[in-house]
Amino acid sequence: MRKRLNGGFTPNKMKDMFGIINESVDTLVEYLSEREGAGVDSRELFTRLNCNVILNTMFGIECNCLKEPPHKLFSMGNEINDYSSWKFVRIFATTISMTLTKLLDINLVRGELFVHFMQAIKGSLRERERNKTFRGDMVDFMLDNKGETDDEPSAKKINLNEDEKAMQLFGFFIGGYDAISALLAYSSYELAVNPDIQRRLREEVEGVTHLTYESLMNMKYLDMVVSEVLRKWPIAVFIDRKCMEQFVIQPEHANEAELILEPGILCWIPIYAIHRDPKYYPEPEKFDPERFSEKNKHQINRSVYFPFGAGPRTCIASKFSVYVCKLVLVRILQEYQIVECEGTVPPSDVSKIVIFLSGSGSKVAFKRKN
């Protein structure tokens, strides 16, 4: 099933969504024009924008969460993606024991929230089937009756009922909602405090006369910048994986013993710590897109760069998240400079009980280009 669902995020499918995403970004450009020069909470700003993008591309629901009051699904999405201490305990319990989870009746999403979301998603599915319209979004993908995807002909169709289709769309929402807004918040902060990097990126943006999916994907320095943001601020702080066969970790120092991992052991992999280990990344606290240049990127061991996780269970919407981030950054830099202001501080540091970096607490301002 996962291979089939991956077909929703192939280059052709994302190209189909280019216009839909661009329409959502139009609301951001309009919003910024009304608040030029004023400091804004970057996480709040991009969470509202991302709600527009996700609801539009995933469910076919057109809204403008940058206006007050925002769509009711915006508040629901915020609650679902609230990684507070108690939410972490619930997530942690599901990774330790499903028996414990069932015994304590632990749910990651409140029942009434889940019901409201499922009703909204099913409503979109039914309306699309009834009207026989095509938008090129994820609703169309879930309703697609072709046996194979255009990009992956080996990915055979899996017949899903309405509940299963709605559940998959709900999963896409969870996967993309927090990732995109966090990535944009970190990107805006780094560009604000590194004006020379922003200047070089703007030069690349201004060199593109007609913005299309293809021209966006061909912007090399943009890719370097976003890759470095993901290195310094990975979306997942750590991931958990179950050991499937015995593995021995050899000692690195004389006073250490070998560590034997037996099948069935749950391993927690600290992505954030690995991405900031000077053994792999010299001057890890420095924001340096040149790490990912054509000249230097071969020096990066790909096994120590996995901002969205790794393996078969890596984030299914990772390419979509990066795609949206790139498009939003280009649209902003076409008209604005991202600058520091009162309240521009490093994004909230990692606490000992967090799975995802919050990216909250930092403000930036947007000034019209000279």
Automatic annotation (TrEMBL):
<dbReference type="InterPro" id="IPR050476">
    <property type="entry name" value="Insect_CytP450_Detox"/>
</dbReference>
<keyword id="KW-0560">Oxidoreductase</keyword>
<keyword id="KW-0408">Iron</keyword>
<dbReference type="InterPro" id="IPR002401">
    <property type="entry name" value="Cyt_P450_E_grp-I"/>
</dbReference>
<dbReference type="InterPro" id="IPR001128">
    <property type="entry name" value="Cyt_P450"/>
</dbReference>
<dbReference type="InterPro" id="IPR017972">
    <property type="entry name" value="Cyt_P450_CS"/>
</dbReference>
<dbReference type="GO" id="GO:0005506">
    <property type="term" value="F:iron ion binding"/>
</dbReference>
<dbReference type="InterPro" id="IPR036396">
    <property type="entry name" value="Cyt_P450_sf"/>
</dbReference>
<dbReference type="GO" id="GO:0016705">
    <property type="term" value="F:oxidoreductase activity, acting on paired donors, with incorporation or reduction of molecular oxygen"/>
</dbReference>
<keyword id="KW-0479">Metal-binding</keyword>
<keyword id="KW-0492">Microsome</keyword>
<comment type="similarity">
    <text>Belongs to the cytochrome P450 family.</text>
</comment>
<feature type="binding site" description="axial binding residue">
    <location>
        <position position="315"/>
    </location>
    <ligand>
        <name>heme</name>
    </ligand>
</feature>
<protein>
    <recommendedName>
        <fullName>Cytochrome P450</fullName>
    </recommendedName>
</protein>
<keyword id="KW-0256">Endoplasmic reticulum</keyword>
<dbReference type="GO" id="GO:0004497">
    <property type="term" value="F:monooxygenase activity"/>
</dbReference>
<dbReference type="Pfam" id="PF00067">
    <property type="entry name" value="p450"/>
</dbReference>
<keyword id="KW-0472">Membrane</keyword>
<keyword id="KW-0349">Heme</keyword>
<dbReference type="GO" id="GO:0020037">
    <property type="term" value="F:heme binding"/>
</dbReference>
<keyword id="KW-0503">Monooxygenase</keyword>
<dbReference type="GO" id="GO:0005789">
    <property type="term" value="C:endoplasmic reticulum membrane"/>
</dbReference>
